[in-house]
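Continuing the series of single-chain predictions for the mutant panel. This is the parent chain; the variants come on the following pages.
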Amino acid sequence: MSQADAPPIIPRIAWGLTGSGHFLRESLALIDALPDVDLFVTKAAVEVLSMYGIPLKSLRDKHRIYQDHTASSVPVGFLYSGHYHTLIIGPATSNTVAKCVAGISDTLVSNLYAQAGKCRVPSIVFACDCEPTVITEAPGRTVTLYPRPIDLENTQRLKTYPYTTVAENIETLQRAIEQRLACLSTSCS
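Parent structure:
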């Protein structure tokens, strides 16, 4: 085992970025405020970051970044050796939420979610499609979206999954993270 593969002395947060711009800037601000976060970035996330004028290099300067370059999502193996105490996915597209609900793990982030569940690593998912009407930032403008009934249903279904907390807005995401970190500091699992 190389030094890079060895488990850290203190487990870290694995944060998955998907192809959503919904509260992307606010999510990145939360990431920057947390200690010991590694980013797992899907191909769609790389595209969206670029569309929002956020260079991947600016994130790489602050965090370790793992990208979706392998068919088997090799970096998820870090979950098996205690590298991470928590997985956060946010913002999570309706596509990612649907994959998590259906057990499909064909991207780096959906595979992280599946493996976190198998390893009993708690996950926090900041789902984008939680309300019948969503006002969100798009590149260069604000748009109103109307999530489909299946998107809303999948968000509700994900809430029933073990080791999973679903946050429906940036405030509940922040509270869920604070609760998880408080739980860790008092040795609950």
